[in-house]
Every structure is written in C-alpha cells, then in structure tokens.
Design a protein that fits this description.
Blueprint: E1 2-3, H1 6-22, E2 29-32, H2 34-38, E3 42-46, H3 55-60, H4 62-79, E4 84-87, H5 90-102, E5 107-110, H6 123-129, E6 132-135, H7 141-147, E7 151-153, H8 157-161, H9 168-175, E8 183-187, H10 192-213, E9 217-222, H11 225-238, E10 245-249, H12 252-258, E11 261-265, H13 268-275, E12 280-284, H14 288-294, H15 305-310, E13 316-319, H16 325-336, H17 339-356, H18 360-375
Parallel strand pairs: 1-4, 2-3, 4-5, 5-6, 6-7, 8-9, 8-11, 9-10, 11-12, 12-13
Length: 377
C-alpha cells in the first residue's frame, strides 16, 4: 500500500482494520502515515516525502520522489506482494501500479483521480495501471464503467466516521473555547506547500474579521508541527499576535464541530466541514505556475467538494487572485449575517452526508478481497 498524505493515511488505516478483521494473516507494507502504522502497517519511507501538491512544488522535489518510486518498485517486483493498493496520490501511484500490473501483480486504486474535474485524458493511463478502482463518490462509477475499468462505489469513510448530529457545546467545552462568542474555524491546509501560499491570507482575513466583529474567537487545527510553525509565523508577522486564537495540533473534527462558520482550503477539509454541517467559505491559492497550468484543464464550474457533490454554487469559492483578505472577510461576514443561507447549506450538507454514508471500509475490503481471491484462485 502507498498513501501520500493525511487523508490517504486515514483511508488506508480504515481499510487495513477491515481487511485484518477478515484475514488476520495479511501483512501490510509500503508507504503510510501514523494512522496506518497504528494498524500494524510497515512504512518503508516517510509519508511526508510524498506530501507535496501542485506542479511547481512537485518539480522541486521530483528527483527525490522519483527515486523513492523507483526503489519501491524494484523492491515490490522482487517481493511480489499478493496485491498492491494505491491510496490516492495518483501522480505517484499510477506509474507504480502500471509497472506492477504489467508484471502480473493485481492493483487496486482507492480514490478515483479527479478525472471528472480535470485531466480527463488520464483514463487510458488508469486503465493500463489499475485492476480495480474504488470510488468514493456516486457520480464516479459510471465514468469507469463506460471506459471498461472495473469499479466499486464504496462511499466516503468520513461520512461513516462523522456523526449525523454533533453537539456544538460539548465540542467547545472539550477545546476550552468561549461558549457565547461566535467561533470561526480556520483550515488553511494540511501540507507545508499549502501553508506557504495560504497562511498569510488566512491570518490577514482573520485580522480583518476581528477588527470588524470584535466579539469572535478563532480556532485553527494544524496537521503537523511544520504547518503549525508556518501558521504561527504568519500570525506574528501579520496579526501582531493579538488575534483571539486557539491553535490546535490535530483535532480538526472537534474544531469544525465547535465552529459557527469556517474558512476552509479546498480539498478534503471542505468535505469534512460539510459533514459537520458547518457553513463555510472555500478558498485556495497555489504557485502562479501551477495555477497557470491548471486553470485551463479544469472542466467543472466548481472546485470545492460540497459544490461538486451538490452540483450547485452552494458554498462561496475564492481561488487564487480572488482569494484576498478583503473578499474572504466580506464573504464570511455576509454568511454569518444570513441565517437563511446558513440553514440552506446545513440542509444540503445533511443530504450529502446521508448519500455518502455507505459503510465504506467494509465495502472496500469486500472489493479488495474479491480482486485478491480472483487473482490467486
């Protein structure tokens, strides 16, 4: 198995647990994070080496990442595992999977690449690399069926993990947050590359909100020590350290449960906010080079998962040059003052939650074992 970032580590951990419950003799190795390792996974390389996003960022680390993939491929071809599972990280995993599949090792890819959003031409590459695709979203399966790629829709594990209803007061008490002031969650990303482009924008937005509203409190969960350091540096430089801010290590779910509204970087965090029924504004910034390359490949009118799943502009999105502190703070204030809009978001988020709740780990384990048993019958 190979996972390349925190969200993949969570997916991989749930799948390992489900597979181990059915086949205790199975052993798991490759690249994974702390959650996978807690389930008995042996990580041969640090997962953080793969946790870069965007063309410019990948180019800077290309030699090291390519070396890891080359060494891992050589080892896997020698050891010949019973099955390989690539957990997301398509730019790393698809090339690896193609070589393994060509050598007769069955390959499962867990999380469809965003072919429905951009780079649709990858379907041919996926077909050559993947024995079976596990899709998290319902609209993905028909795309693979049409292309002749075996696929199973398994739902999203976060929809199973996150309760349909949460107790905001309990979450605030757990995090020792003010009970009477509005709470705004700030989620600027889980990677260093994301914080590099978004920490300053999020901090400046928070400062504007504080100047405008005063009686508010911010909560910001950080995925790693490195990302926390980057955010703290932005707070010192751009807010004078005066923000009413609770900075957390982890605890993103508790932060979203406690918040009245959230400012969220596009990605898995926006889906998490929707599953916690937290009204939100979505923002994203990346390197100018990556943006110049990607903007012409985007095939959908939205980038935020809540909007893609709802097939409407449910949540305000601000990308690249539009993601300014002025625009973001104005959008958040507007949302906080519009109770009808908040209720509409919450109602649609609940519908999405119910649609995605599919007992994902069990469905994924069923599909993996079917591929495994068929290959070794």
């Amino acid at each position: 198995m190979v996972a390349g970032e925190a969200s993949g580590d969570l997916l991989g951990a749930h799948l390992i647990a489900a597979l181990s419950a059915r086949r205790p003799e199975l052993r798991f190795a490759g690249i994974g994070g702390p959650k996978m390792q807690a389930e008995g996974f042996q990580s041969l390389y640090p997962m953080e080496k793969l946790s870069v996003r965007g063309y410019a960022e990948v180019l800077r680390h290309y030699r090291e990442i390519a070396g890891i993939r080359r060494h891992l491929a050589s080892r896997l071809l020698e050891d010949r595992p019973a099955i390989f599972i690539g957990v997301d990280a398509p730019d790393f995993n698809l090339d690896l999977e193609r070589g393994l599949k060509g050598a007769g090792i069955p390959t499962v890819h867990y999380v469809s690449p965003s072919i429905w959003a951009w780079r649709a031409g990858r379907m041919g590459k996926i077909s050559a690399a993947v024995s079976h695709m596990l899709a998290l979203f319902p609209f993905e399966a028909p795309l693979y069926e049409k292309a002749g790629v075996p696929v199973t829709y398994v739902g999203h594990p976060l929809a199973d993990l996150i309760p349909l209803e949460v107790n905001k007061d309990e979450a605030r008490a757990q995090l020792r947050l003010p009970m009477r002031h509005p709470i705004i969650a700030l989620l600027p990303g889980s990677r260093k590359s994301e914080l590099h482009y978004m920490a300053e924008t999020f901090v400046k937005t928070a400062r504007r909100l504080y100047e405008e509203l005063k009686e508010i409190h911010f909560v910001c969960p950080m995925a790693t020590r490195e990302t926390r350091d980057l955010f703290e540096t932005a707070v010192r430089h751009h807010a004078g350290g005066e923000l009413p801010l609770t900075l957390l290590f982890g605890h993103s779910h508790e932060a979203l449960a406690a918040a009245d509204v959230a400012l969220v970087a596009s990605g898995t965090a926006s889906l998490e906010a929707a599953l916690f029924k937290t009204p939100m504004v979505v923002a994203y910034r990346m390197s100018p080079l990556t943006w110049a390359l990607m903007r012409h490949m985007i095939r959908l009118p939205y980038v935020g998962l809540p909007n893609i799943l709802a097939n409407e502009a449910l949540v305000a999105e601000f990308l690249q040059h539009r993601a300014t502190p002025g625009a973001l703070s104005a959008a958040i204030i507007e949302l906080m003052h519009d109770a009808d809009r908040q209720r509409r978001q919450v109602a649609r988020f609940r519908e999405l939650h119910l649609n995605l709740r599919q007992n994902t780990a069990e469905k994924a384990a069923d599909a993996v074992l079917q591929v495994l048993d068929s290959a070794h019958a």
